[in-house]
């Protein structure tokens, strides 16, 4: 969670406060995981924006921090001592500390949360492990421990758009998100120092397709708990703060064409990243279906006048039941909106770059497309400096 402005921080803080009653309890209309997330967000906002009281509201008063300190194998700090350190910052001003929830595991009133904390000024990446318990006054953090490593990461983030369409309505076949495209994109961005979040129209778990457990990358991804947790806990569009992201990527598979193109909330997120953040919009294979209806603030289609790539009509199996249920043909839809569609040789990587729009034609193109989006984003940031 990275809230870039004082106003947004206060807005989110207000939302957290209004989700509690006068005793500080989390609203019972929330699920258990939502209640836990609300408590963790108090910790995140308190530490990132120097709000000691917000921080303390996340912890039980007797909570302890078990931390590292030079010369001490175990450094123990109380919540009051921790809050006193937080109070030294300027209240409401983002201090550069970017925190993301990697996973939450809960059972019968107890929970463990894993967080990633990036502090660019220290050139460090921390992993926080929080132990929580449901008490009479709601969920509270009862202890925290953390480890760290040297890192040059700066808190840059990518948003990957995925689909919830597990099957085509009134049709007898399943659909899903391309596991290759999702996993290759995730690990390419992660290895480049980016944090990756996923969004889908409904949020939550997404259907996966074309998984090959004998493929070494697929197998590694399947056993990566942070990655699989992220796929089972995608954000809803209303939970996304587009100011956090430098890149938005639409991955493909058989599902996205059925629920992504018409989702206006995701379109608004993409437009904001492209125009307000001056970020990169990327799409690969059938994920290109998701960008056909995106419009810029002047009312024009994003693809208008641009060279665009995606999965071409020539490579489609026109006799398949899946193809016959497509709401449109991607290539024709892009051309109808003024884009110039092009593609390369079948089953080989091919991607097209037009300004800050990067598109690729198949799953083989995912890695080179992700790398190109990173290259463009970094050049833009360096020019700003």
Can you offer a commentary on this structure?
The protein has 385 residues and is α/β, with parallel strands linked by helices. It folds into 2 domains: 6-150, Nuclear Transport Factor 2, Chain: A (Roll); 157-384, Class I glutamine amidotransferase (GATase) domain (Rossmann fold, 3-Layer(aba) Sandwich), CATH 3.40.50. The protein contains 12 helices and 16 strands. The chain has helices at 6-18, 32-48, 52-58, 79-86, 179-191, 216-222, 225-232, 256-259, 264-275, 321-324, 330-336, 366-384, and strands spanning 59-69, 72-78, 98-107, 110-119, 124-135, 138-150, 157-161, 177-178, 195-199, 208-209, 247-250, 280-284, 307-308, 340-341, 351-354, 357-360. It has a 6-stranded mixed sheet. A 6-stranded mixed sheet has the order 9-7-11-12-16-15, sandwiched between helices. Strands 8-10 form a two-stranded parallel ribbon. Helix 2 packs antiparallel against helix 3 (52-58) and helix 3 (52-58) packs antiparallel against helix 4. The two termini are 24 Å apart. The model is unreliable at 1-24 (pLDDT under 50).
What is the total tally of β strands?
A: 16
Number of domains: 2
Strand content: 25-35%
Could you name the CATH homologous superfamily of the largest domain? Class I glutamine amidotransferase (GATase) domain
Average pLDDT over all residues: 91
CATH fold name of the largest domain? Rossmann fold
Query: What Rg, in angstroms, do the CA atoms define?
Result: 22 Å
Order of strands, widest sheet: 2-1-6-5-4-3
Largest sheet, in brief, is: 6 strands, mixed
Shape: elongated
Q: How many helical elements?
A: 12
Protein structure class: alpha/beta
How do the SSEs run, as a string of H and E? Answer: HHHEEHEEEEEEHEEHHEHHEEHHEEEH
What is the first-to-last residue Cα distance? Answer: 24 Å
Unreliable spans? 1-24
| CATH class descriptor name of the largest domain | Alpha Beta
**Could you estimate the helical fraction of the residues in percent?**
25-40%
Oligomer: single chain
CATH architecture of the largest domain: 3-Layer(aba) Sandwich
């Amino acid at each position: 969670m990275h809230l870039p402005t004082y106003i947004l921080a206060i807005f989110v803080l207000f939302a957290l406060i209004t989700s509690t009653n006068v005793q500080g309890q989390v609203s019972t209309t929330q699920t258990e995981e939502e209640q836990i997330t609300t408590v963790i967000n108090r910790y995140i906002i308190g530490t990132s924006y120097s709000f000691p009281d917000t921080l303390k509201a996340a912890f039980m008063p007797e909570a302890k921090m078990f931390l590292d300190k030079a010369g001490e194998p175990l450094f123990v700090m109380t919540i009051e001592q921790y809050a006193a350190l937080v109070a030294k910052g300027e209240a409401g001003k983002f201090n550069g500390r970017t925190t993301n929830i990697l996973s939450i595991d809960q059972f019968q009133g107890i929970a463990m949360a894993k967080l990633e904390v990036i502090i660019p000024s220290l050139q460090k990446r921390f992993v926080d492990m929080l132990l929580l318990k449901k008490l009479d006054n709601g969920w509270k953090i009862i202890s925290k421990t953390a480890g760290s490593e040297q890192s040059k990461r700066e808190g840059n983030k990518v948003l990957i758009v995925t689909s919830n369409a597990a099957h085509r309505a009134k049709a007898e076949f399943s659909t899903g998100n391309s596991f290759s495209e999702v996993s290759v994109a995730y690990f390419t961005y992660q290895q480049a120092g980016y944090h990756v979040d996923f969004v889908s129209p409904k949020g939550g778990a997404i259907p996966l397709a074309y998984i090959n457990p004998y493929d070494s990358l697929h197998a590694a991804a399947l056993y990566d708990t942070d990655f699989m947790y992220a796929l089972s806990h995608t954000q809803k569009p209303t939970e996304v703060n587009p100011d956090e992201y430098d890149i938005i990527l639409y991955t493909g598979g058989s599902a996205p064409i059925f629920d992504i193109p018409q989702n206006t909330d995701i379109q608004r997120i993409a437009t904001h990243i492209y125009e307000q953040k001056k970020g990169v919009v990327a799409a690969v294979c059938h994920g290109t279906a998701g960008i056909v209806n995106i419009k810029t603030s002047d009312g024009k289609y994003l693809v208008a006048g641009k060279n665009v790539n995606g999965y071409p009509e020539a490579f489609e199996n026109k006799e398949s039941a899946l193809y016959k249920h497509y709401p449109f043909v991607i290539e024709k839809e892009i051309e109808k909106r003024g884009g110039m569609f092009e593609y390369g040789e079948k089953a080989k990587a091919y991607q097209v770059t037009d300004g800050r729009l990067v598109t690729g034609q198949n799953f083989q193109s995912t890695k080179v497309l992700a790398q190109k989006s990173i290259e463009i984003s970094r050049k833009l940031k360096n020019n700003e400096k």
